Amino acid sequence: MPTFYRISRLILVLFFIYACNKEEEEENTLFVLKKADQTHIQFQNLITSTPELNILTYLYYYNGAGVASGDFNNDGYEDLYFAANQGENKLYLNKGNLEFKELSSEIVADTQGWTTGVTTVDINNDGLLDLYVCKVGGYLGLQGGNKLFINQGIDNRGIPRFKEQAAAYNLAIVSFSTQASFFDYDLDGDLDMYLLNHSVHPNQNYGRGSQRKQIDELSGDRLYRNDDGYYTDVSSIAGIYQGAIGYGLGLATSDVNNDGYPDIYIGNDFFENDYLYINQQNGTFREVIASGKKKIHTSHFSMGVDIADINNDAMTDILSLDMLSEDLETYRSSGSEHSFTIYNQYLKNGYQPQYMQNTLQLNRGNTDFSEIAFFSGIAATDWSWAPQIADYDNDGFKDIFVSNGILGATNDMDFINFIANDKIQQRIRRGMQKEDLALIDDLPTKKMENYFYRNKGDLTFENVSNRWATPIPSYSNGAIYVDLDNDGDLDIVVNNCNEKAFVYENQARKKLENTNYIKLKLKGASKNRQAIGAKATVFTKEGKQISEVFTTKGYLSAVSPVLHFGLGKVSAIDSIQIQWPDKKIATYEAPKINTTLQLNKEDKSTFSTIEVISTSSKKDSLEIYFRHQEYETKDFNFETLTPYASSNEGPHITVRDINNDGLDDVFIPGGRYQASVLLMQQTNGIFRESNQPEFEIEKRPENIDACFFDADTDGDLDMVVVSGGNEKIPNTSGKPVLFLNKKGSFQKQPKAFPEIEMNASTVITADIDQDGDQDVLITSSGTPQTYGEIPTNYILKNTGTGNFIDVTDTIAPELRKIGQVYDAQFVDFNKDNHPDLIVAGHYMPITVFMNDGKGNLTKEKNESLQDTNGWWNCILVFDADKDGDMDIVAGNWGLNSRLKASKQYPIQLYRSDFDKNGRVDPIVTYFYDEKETPIANTDELTKQLPILNKQYTSYGDFAKADFQDYFTKTAINAAEKRQVFRLETTYFKNNGNTNFTAYSLPWQAQISSVHDILIDDINEDGYPDMILGGNTYELNTQLSRLDASYGVMLLNDKKGNFREYRKPGFKVKGAVRSIESIKVKDNTYFLFGVNNDSLQIVKK
User: Fold this and answer.
1) How many Å apart are CA 606 and CA 578, to the nearest integer?
2) At 581, is the secondary structure helix, strand, or coil?
3) Which residues are CB-contacts of 7 (< 8 A; sequence separation ≥ 6)?
4) What angle do CA 782, 785, 790 make, to 5 degrees?
5) pLDDT at residue 16, as a whole number
6) What's the CA gap between 200 and 479, in Å, rounded?
7) 319 — phi, psi (to 5°)?
8) Does the chain have fewer CB atoms within 10 Å around its N or its C terminus?
9) CA distance 177 to 134
10) Spacing of C-alpha 233 from chain mean position
11) CA 424, 425, 430, 432 torsion-angle sign
């Protein structure tokens, strides 16, 4: 046989094998990507650059276009409408069996302008679905405005006809339109419209946030009220921002506070904050993010947005996408966050915290949210566009689909440096020529696979992209979920750039067990036939699920108004409750499952009304006023590579009966240049500030902690105050101060302690040597402006007269340099009536020192604690399970950041003078996909270590290198190295003989840092419960910030296990640093000391 034929046959055989393998691979996935010759959908959104219009002249040139689903011919099958940026939009009729018919151009004639988003609406309430199409007009020669295609009816062949009538409704709007959403914001029965627009201006100079209050006719968003079919612009009177700094890309509506009125979320690209408009029920909205009313962080470069209930708690959560890469090399070669100093300036200019990451705002009630994307495992999906939250495997929990990819990644740092060249910028400004299009060739493409995440039912998601679908790189933009074949599971349709659209067939009903479902098709009142804004609640033995009828979701796209609920193994529904858009509630008992249930509001005669339950905190009667004061954080000016600031650690409140009158009093340490206060409780429950002149004199250092005890054995309570912070400011040294109580006047004893100057973290006392007086332990968490350097801790022996001598080296030499100690507690572990000691801190294990009975403290070799190295902030010892031995709970960094730590893949601190310039370089690394990488970005590293610029001449080269490549093996091995193995806030159960087993506390304790824990019997069942507080705002900007906690109450199950207790109205906001309980009259209150904020009080 000739060689040519043998080779040809071999190629055919290999092709056949590949095809068979591919088909077999798709057979094993949940979704099958249907071929275009099967669906007959040949649509492509083709993008062709011209000198006049390209990515260098229009910054959203590669943003793609949307897709919408709806039954346009009322045959019971969902049809599809695809938008094209430059070409012709297309309508496809669903013929069943996932086959479609492309309608001729004249059916929905639309070839003018640059199309972006598409929305479905029955605007004239005739039972026929219409289309509203958004355009970019009035820019770079792009002409025309938004178009409204009114469905004129269906001919005898089942084909709908459309007529463009935007002008008749006052909706022929010429602007830089992104997307529209129709909903009834004022509950007058008809559908109003929010129009999302975007700026086209470069974002280098962001100016002040107050610009959002100005009005820009082309870039500013608009709200239109429906006045009997004529849409009136009411943006200004409704409180809508219309400024030129709005780069709106994402739009979603939902009743986020469950008051029956729809609210609006806007995702803004670049420096402008996202907007959350809370409906005020009077025709106006109150924006709560950009205005600073809610202290949450959002995505920096927000793309698409979706809102749905991810944890079945009947409150809708918000997902906004960004472009944080999951790939480490891409992440390190792309633009990242500004330094903390620039970030702080940005906040001063009227913006709120935002970071380059997907954000998942978990609804905590009363329009409070906890951002948990890193905890949930969905923070990084690269250059992402459309989030679509829906139950794809019908298990009763909503999953996530994310479309991905871009024709040119404009955040590539090497391209940014290239294109920023003055000569190139001059060429662009003069007007590009055909030959200038070659500049775009250097722009990296990002052809990415789309993401699928399975909801695990515990607020975390599993990346199942490779299991649920065959990975195919694409430039995917607009996307929707829709049941195209009416089989009870949700298919996915995607509009791609420069390639054919994707139609993913969902095979859940065929391939998976326990995939019961129900679909709801609602028919509303005469002016809102699709019941836009209605909310359905499905009640089963497993709990309840909710879903809302809003069609504008994800990115530039619109889903079907038909609601879908996966039921999993549930075989019967107890009832379905429909809250119609007018807030009236109808209940439908025991409906059939695995079907589409059609519910008509007019068929129901009996309704109940919505009951709004406020979860806001009521004002407690206890009045203690104090606001802690901090100055602007400067840590990152001095130490570029530090992962977090160390100068925001106060105040640590102390509650004691100072004057022995049987009433609890309060001492609150002041910030730098802020006097501490002593508040004395009166018999009527009022607190009066005690006049203490010495406190005013000693206000220069930042007082961190205090301890009351009888220092001079005269029968009253004296006080030691310790100071800290990371600043080096003359005359503000951190020297411990003893104040002796002289008939209620606290007087400084300047020579009570030896000459000690330190950054103190805590102070505690115990009679270590059993000589009848209290000795003092002062610990330190670090040396100012020398990150990671191990500080000195002190045990100070009381001479019995209120003077103290340093005996650390004598009785506890191992304690002197044990590590960066953040907290400590004296406790009698072995019940020998001698105080032992436990300490915890950063880069160190939880460590126990046993008292030998002679006042000597020896570090215990405890195998169960030896690998507990964490970033521990606090520790507490108590008998959790009442078995007679002492258990431990310790507050840690948490699990809601990009950082993860284990024994195999630790966080590591390297301290060495790597570039031999006489200054120690503290480099903190972590492992990502088994590769060690610094927390600091390229710019921060090269600023600290300019020598690296000689080794790596581009961001791309730097990104390819492992940390171990930066320096010689000898240099790395010679560095001081310390490690973190555990980041979870943890309960350590004592199994006897101080042998501990570690248990991670519930998720509420893991979504932020924990800085203090109070043990209290909250429910008065005789078992100790926990109250936890934390949050950390001052982090390296590459780490976002830890702000998701509102305080946590955990109840003891009487076996030493803990679960969340939701106390009505319990919410503590801010960076909590201490928690104390106080008795006032017959009531107990919890006091929360908040850094740089007011004291917060919760009644027990």
Assistant:
1) 12
2) coil
3) none
4) 30
5) 52
6) 24
7) -115, 120
8) N
9) 6
10) 34
11) positive
What is each CA distance from 129 to 147, 177, 596, 1059, in whole angstroms? 15, 22, 19, 48
**What pLDDT is recorded for position 7?**
55
- DSSP line for 150-217: EEEEE-TTS-EEEEE-TGGGT----SBEEEEEEE-TT-SSS-EEEEEEB--S--S----GGGGGSB-T
pLDDT (tens digit, 9 = 90+) per residue, 1054-1064?
988 999 999 99
User: What six digits make up the tokens of 153?
Assistant: 């009816």
Tracing tokens 């610009």 back to the chain, one arrives at 211
Q: How far apart are CA 2 and CA 787, in angstroms?
A: 74
Q: What is the mean pLDDT of residues 342-359?
A: 93
Angle made by CA atoms 867, 871, 876, in degrees to the nearest 5: 85
Longest dimension (CA), the chain: 113
d(CA 628, CA 874): 20
Residue 941 has pLDDT above 60, yes or no: yes
User: For 633-742, where are the E strands, in sequence order?
Assistant: 654-656, 665-668, 677-681, 687-689, 702-709, 718-724, 737-742
What are 269-280's pLDDT values in tens digits? 999 999 999 999
pLDDT of residue 615: 43
Q: What are the residues whose beta carbons fall under 8 Å from the beta carbon of 543, sequence distance 6 or more?
A: 312
Question: Which three-class secondary structure state does DSSP give residue 695?
Answer: helix
CB 479 within 8 A of CB 401: yes
The 3-state DSSP class for residue 974 equals: helix
Q: For residue range 643-654, what is the model confidence (pLDDT) as tens digits?
A: 999 999 999 999
- Among residues 41, 160, 210, 180, the alpha carbon closest in space to that of 118 is found at 180
The set of residues, in sequence order, having a beta carbon less than 8 Å from that of 190 and lying 6+ positions away, is: 184, 226, 228, 527, 528
| 8 A C-beta contact, residue 744 and residue 659 | yes
Q: Strand locations in 483-562, DSSP E? A: 491-496, 502-506, 516-523, 535-540, 543-548, 552-553, 557-558
Residue 966 tokens read as 């930066």
Tokens of 602: 């007019």
Pairwise CA distance, residues 956 & 748, whole Å: 59
- Give the range among 71-80, 344-353, 462-471 with minimum mean pLDDT: 344-353
Q: How far apart are CA 469 and CA 467, in angstroms?
A: 6
CB atoms within 10 A of CB 804: 25
Judged against a pLDDT cut of 80, whether residue 20 lies above it is answered with no
Closest C-alpha to 130, from 173, 84, 182, 179: 182
CB 557 within 8 A of CB 480: yes
Vertex 1008, ends 1004 and 1011: CA angle to 5°?
100
Length of the chain: 1100
Beta-bridged to residue 459, according to DSSP, are none
| Separation of alpha carbons 640 and 622, rounded Å | 43
Question: Looking up tokens 């939902």, which residue turns up?
Answer: 254
CA distances from 409 to 61, 201, 943 (A): 11, 18, 25
- Alpha-carbon gap, residue 512 to 29, rounded angstroms: 11
- Beta 354-355 vs 298-299: how paired, if at all? parallel
Residue 1072 amino acid letter: V
Task: List the one residue out of 808, 704, 811, 720 whose CA is nearest residue 764.
Answer: 720
Q: Is 883 helix (H, G, I), strand (E, B) or coil?
A: coil
- And the tokens for 304? 């698409």
- Strands laid side by side in the 718-724 sheet: 702-709, 718-724, 737-742, 745-749
How is residue 612 written in tokens? 């709004």
Question: Both tokens of residue 1009?
Answer: 């840092």
Measured from the Cβ of residue 902, the count of other Cβ atoms closer than 10 Å reads 13
Helix (H) or strand (E) holding 612: none
Q: Is the pLDDT of residue 1 over 50?
A: no
Residue 45 token pair? 């959104």
Distance, CA of 235 to CA of 288 (rounded, Å): 17
Question: What's the pTM?
Answer: 0.95
What's 425's DSSP letter?
Answer: H
Residue 1065 DSSP symbol:
T
CB 276 within 8 A of CB 263: yes
CA distance 2 to 307: 64
